[in-house]
Design a protein that fits this description.
Elements (H helix, E strand, L loop, with lengths): L4 H9 L20 H6 L3 E3 L2 H10 L9 E3 L10 H20 L1 H20 L5 H12 L3 H7 L15 H9 L6 H11 L4 H10 L10 H12 L8 H11 L16 H9 L4 H11 L14 H10 L2 H9 L5 H11 L9 H11 L4 H10 L11 H16 L2 H19 L12 H14 L10 H10 L3 H15 L4 H10 L8 H17 L1
Parallel strand pairs: 1-2
């Protein structure tokens, strides 16, 4: 739609595509029409206004037609050379995706059917959940706002949320910012400990965790005042945090590893405030989580080591296949960095997709990180990823075979490494090796299986990393309007070929890889 240079460039660069130009304004030489939309396999709009106009005035005509938006302003804002360069950059991934379009049509129809069923079944909705709980407790938006606090620095004056902010939550136009605010919302709504953990999980946060000092205080407050329906739990919670100076607590560098079940049992036996003070002081060195997220555990580190392997990550990075966000994540997990990792769940899922894991393998990795597994998530995007992964592995079984083969090689390499022989990383590695060899045998060497034309095309496009298939499908589903752009954006950003990296990170990772080579 609009901007004639796009037509000339497509004809010159991709002669196999047909294109018709149309505008949405009254003075346009050719206006968009039902006939032009019926002819098109896909629509490309330059700006958000174009997409909005089409969806509002021709909803039925584009129900089964993807609409790509380039986000390119009027060409008068650019020089001719700059505008043409921008069009090339914006259109290249669109046309590359359209080349695979006919191959993906059946999958698109299948996933859209799943999403339609999810909507019909009433998937989890935060706004509806809040409204229902407010009604049960007789809380108005104003009353709830007074129970919810904004973040305040240590020693600062706390402030309650505004009623308009709560109003946005109730309309689904916004949601609480981070785990702490989500947790305080649950407390303000009168949830007990079990309900609050479930509430956090449904919203993709870690449940109340015994090694998180903020969560420990929340557990204590909820247990102390379980029978008091009128208690202002959020106020009591903040008073306790301030009393112990937990709002400014820094995690200890030399942490002591203690089993979470032992800590939970010891906390349950505490009745007095004095005993709680002693417990908190005694086990402060075991905390490995802050108010918003958790640190990578040793089990997550061993999972990464065996299932992905840092050497293969280096190869992906140096081959311009791994984006910067994931590239920077791995050395931090490997070295047991003490700083919390933001957005860890999405990054681990993307890393699993890059490594051709099954959805079960990804869920196992998320479990090691104490994050909600894909299988239990009520979200649309997670359900889509699971369905796409299963479909991809069915169509391209060689991907799972290669992933398993990589795990076997990584375990054998780690077992041969003298520096690692006595470390916890190798605990259970022999059993894992046997299990993965059984999995590999069960696939019966998919490389020699007969393939039909579509399977061969799919393998040509996606056999290296199924993540690219997931990215393509998420983008198409957003272009159909089946998923919101905000839902797919984190994964599209993470699952993109990385062509430009900073030299510092390339050098740093090479140094880490070199250290590993020296120890073998």
């Amino acid at each position: 739609m609009d901007r004639s240079p796009i037509a000339k460039w497509i004809h010159e660069t991709y002669p196999g595509f047909e294109i018709r130009l149309a505008g949405i304004l009254p003075h346009a030489k050719t206006r968009v029409s039902k006939e032009s939309l019926a002819w098109a396999d896909a629509v490309v709009g330059m700006e958000s206004d174009h997409e909005r106009f089409i969806r509002e005035h021709y909803a039925s005509e584009v129900e089964n037609t993807p609409i790509f938006r380039l986000d390119v302003a009027n060409e008068s804002h650019y020089t001719k050379k700059a505008f043409n360069a921008l069009i090339r950059k914006k259109m290249a991934p669109v046309l590359a995706l359209l080349e695979k379009f006919d191959l993906l049509q059946k999958d698109i129809k299948y996933i859209r059917g799943i999403l339609a069923n999810m909507d019909a079944d009433g998937r989890y909705n935060l706004a509806a959940d809040i409204r229902e709980r407010m009604k049960a407790r007789g809380l108005s938006a104003n009353a709830l706002a007074k129970r919810c606090w904004r973040f305040h620095p240590p020693g600062g004056q706390p402030k309650t949320l505004s009623t308009p902010a709560i109003g946005k939550w109730l309309k689904g136009a916004a949601h609480p910012n981070g785990k702490e605010q989500m947790k305080e919302l649950g407390m303000a709504l009168g949830m007990n400990e079990e309900e609050l953990s479930d509430f956090l999980l449904k919203n993709k946060y870690t449940p109340l965790h015994i090694k998180n000092p903020f969560d420990v205080v929340a557990k204590r407050i909820l247990r102390q005042h379980a029978a008091d329906k009128k208690a202002d739990l959020v106020r009591l919670y903040h008073a306790e945090l301030d009393q112990r100076n937990i709002t400014s607590l820094s995690l200890l560098v030399n942490r002591v590893s203690i089993v979470t079940t032992f800590l939970s049992a010891s906390l349950k036996g505490i009745t007095s405030e004095k005993d709680f003070d002693l417990w908190f002081e005694k086990y402060a060195s075991s905390f490995d989580a802050d108010g918003k997220t958790v640190l990578p555990t040793s089990t997550l580190r061993s999972f990464i080591l065996f299932h992905i392997g840092y050497r293969s990550v280096r190869d992906m990075y140096e081959g311009d296949e791994l984006p910067e966000l994931l590239y920077r994540l791995l050395p931090r997990i490997r070295d047991g960095m003490n700083d919390p990792l933001r957005g860890l769940r999405e990054k681990l899922i993307a890393l699993g997709l890059y490594s051709n894991m099954t959805d079960a393998d990804i869920d196992l990795m998320l479990g090691h990180a104490r994050l909600m597994p894909l299988a239990k998530s009520p979200g649309k995007i997670d359900a889509v990823i699971v369905a796409l992964l299963r479909r991809a592995h069915e169509r391209c079984p060689c991907c799972e075979y290669m992933a398993i083969d990589q795990v076997i090689k990584n375990i054998v390499s780690a077992q041969a490494n003298r520096e690692l022989r006595d470390q916890r990383l190798l605990k259970g590695s022999e059993e894992l090796l046997v299990a993965f060899r059984h999995r590999q045998d069960s696939l019966k060497n998919p490389f020699v299986m007969l393939q039909n034309k579509d399977e061969k095309r799919f393998e040509d496009y996606y056999s290296d990393h199924l993540s690219i298939y997931i990215r393509d499908m998420l983008r198409l589903l957003a272009c159909y309007g089946s998923l919101a752009e905000s839902e797919v954006a984190p994964y599209v950003e993470l699952i993109s070929n990385a062509k430009e990296h900073t030299g510092w990170w390339r050098q740093k990772f090479s140094e880490l890889a070199g250290e590993e080579d020296d120890s073998n």
